[in-house]
């Protein structure tokens, strides 16, 4: 396997700062609901007659965040195609800055709820835009690593919320206890926005806009290898991209595509949407965001009090980040995406089954069973091992690979919309559900895990090692050029016969 190009790695790592923003923003409420001053400032009762109102508001705080995320995800179907992948990330940064500032300065519940929706919109754009951008910059053999950085950064964002919250917990006399954690959201967003002007645009988007010379220069820079001084691999890949783009344009004309929904006339595109949405729903339906956002209250229910639940929250997310690192560096590009998802779904369902049983028999007892409650904490942690190592990063890789160039921004938008819409539902009803049906709420996710496991097993192809263009063949769509060992000589000859300038490749494809 060729070595990773450092320049490509630097760019995809820097872009992943946006993923830190999403991870932090998505889980910040999980530690804030453990801060006493948050309840005091907004006059939210933690027990007694006012508890029902508190649960409703907490559900709305999470539900509105993910509702905003769902709409933000949908919006990139337009922005990523019209303005570019990089510009979409920059727009997301600006929206996040507004949302974070309003959240940190919230004067009342209504203002806070509005800020959560705005922040959700921004990170909804971010969680779509970053892996889309990373995938289109990555060479085939290392795409799992580069897009997997998105998952690692999500885990880092999750972990940061815990440690920031744990530190602020001990300032128990002022609103700094909860305002500062919200203000921290501004830091990664400002860093990314400031540095993004030095990043290249996606070469595939440039190609779609007819800016072929720029596209070739980006590919040449990002996919260069020390043992390939003539940039043969970059030229082959660019040749493949231009030929596939011409073929896809012809296919688009044959389908009579005028609006984005016209793509659904073709069965292979409907299957791609099924796979993209299936990948993201395998995450949402595993219950991850419910466990993440409400684990502080889950630990409290297990008899753990004080600042320890917030510390456990931080450690849980560190475990999650480590799992994502293993996934990106050791699993996806070696063993594939599909087998990882299957292991992850089965593992999380098993952990939730044990958690449900332990909650049923040991939570709320007059005489606490410390062994049973200890195992309850263990399975919350064992859950994140399976989720982070086998689902979290993998879902974004699958989504970024599943769609052809001209449909990719739309497909990614619809897939992440499905995830955030499901998350809005699950985290919105979670406080009330845990209050009224308790352990039975876990059964919902166990049943959904069975459904997503079946979906992945039956319908998902394996995409590791293939270029984004070659993946078309897995869905029954034509591939213009294969870069395979058997066709190396023929492809070399074609490239040698052409002028080695990117725009000339387009001349050949239009001839």
Automatic annotation (TrEMBL):
Q: Does the keyword section mention GTP-binding? A: no
Q: Which Pfam families match?
A: Sugar_tr (PF00083)
Per UniProt, the keywords (alphabetical) are:
Membrane, Transmembrane, Transmembrane helix, Transport
Protein's UniProt name: Major facilitator superfamily (MFS) profile domain-containing protein
- Residue stretches making up the Major facilitator superfamily (MFS) profile domain: 11-464
**Membrane topology category:** Multi-pass membrane protein
The cellular location(s) given in this protein's UniProt record come to:
Membrane
Q: Which residues cross the membrane?
A: 12-33, 57-79, 91-112, 147-166, 273-291, 303-327, 339-359, 371-390, 410-429, 441-460
Q: Its GO CC terms?
A: membrane
SUPFAM superfamilies, from UniProt? MFS general substrate transporter (SSF103473)
> What Gene Ontology molecular function terms does this protein carry?
carbohydrate:proton symporter activity
Tell me which family the UniProt entry assigns to this protein.
Answer: Belongs to the major facilitator superfamily. Sugar transporter (TC 2.A.1.1) family.
């Amino acid at each position: 396997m060729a070595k990773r190009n450092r320049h490509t790695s630097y760019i995809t790592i820097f872009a992943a700062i946006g993923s830190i923003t999403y991870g932090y923003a998505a889980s910040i409420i999980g530690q804030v609901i453990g801060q006493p001053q948050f309840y005091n400032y907004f006059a939210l009762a933690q027990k007694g007659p006012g508890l029902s109102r508190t649960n409703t508001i907490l559900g709305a705080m999470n539900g509105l965040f993910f509702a905003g995320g769902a709409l933000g995800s949908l919006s990139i179907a337009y922005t990523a195609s019209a303005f570019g992948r990089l510009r979409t990330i920059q727009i997301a940064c600006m929206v996040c800055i507004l949302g974070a500032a309003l959240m940190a300065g919230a004067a009342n519940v209504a203002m806070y709820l509005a800020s959560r929706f705005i922040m959700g919109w921004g990170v909804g754009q971010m969680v779509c835009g970053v892996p889309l951008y990373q995938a289109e910059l990555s060479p085939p053999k290392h795409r799992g690593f580069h897009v997997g950085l998105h998952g690692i950064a999500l885990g880092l964002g999750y972990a940061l919320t815990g440690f920031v919250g744990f530190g602020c917990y001990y300032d128990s006399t002022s609103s700094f206890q909860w305002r500062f954690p919200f203000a921290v959201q501004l830091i990664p967003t400002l860093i990314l926005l400031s540095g993004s002007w030095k990043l290249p645009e996606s070469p595939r988007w440039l190609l779609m806009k007819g800016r072929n010379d720029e596209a070739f220069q980006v590919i040449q820079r990002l996919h260069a290898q020390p043992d390939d001084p003539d940039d043969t691999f970059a030229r082959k890949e660019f040749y493949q991209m231009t030929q596939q783009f011409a073929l896809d344009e012809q296919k688009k004309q044959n389908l009579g595509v005028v609006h984005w929904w016209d793509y659904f006339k073709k069965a292979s595109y409907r299957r791609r949407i099924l796979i993209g949405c299936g990948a993201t729903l395998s995450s949402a339906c595993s219950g991850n965001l419910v466990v993440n956002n409400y684990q502080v209250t889950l630990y409290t229910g297990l008899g753990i009090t004080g600042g320890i639940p917030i510390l456990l929250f931080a450690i849980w997310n560190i475990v999650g980040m480590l799992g994502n690192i293993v996934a990106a560096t050791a699993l996806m590009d070696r063993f594939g995406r599909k087998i990882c998802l299957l292991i992850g779904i089965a593992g999380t369902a098993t952990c939730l089954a044990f958690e449900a049983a332990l909650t049923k028999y040991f939570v709320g007892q007059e005489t606490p069973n410390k062994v049973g409650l200890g195992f309850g904490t263990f399975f919350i942690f064992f859950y994140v091992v399976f989720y982070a190592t086998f689902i979290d990063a993998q879902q974004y890789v699958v989504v970024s690979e599943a769609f052809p160039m001209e449909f990719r921004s739309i497909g990614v938008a619809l897939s992440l919309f499905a995830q955030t819409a499901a998350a809005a539902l699950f985290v919105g009803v979670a406080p009330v559900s845990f209050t009224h049906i308790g352990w039975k709420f876990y059964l919902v996710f166990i049943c959904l895990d069975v459904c997503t496991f079946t979906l992945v097993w039956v319908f998902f192809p394996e995409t590791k090692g293939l270029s984004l263009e070659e993946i078309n063949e897995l869905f029954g769509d034509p591939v213009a050029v294969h870069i395979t060992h058997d066709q190396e000589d023929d492809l070399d000859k074609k490239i040698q016969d052409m002028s080695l300038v990117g725009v000339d490749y387009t001349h050949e494809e239009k001839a």
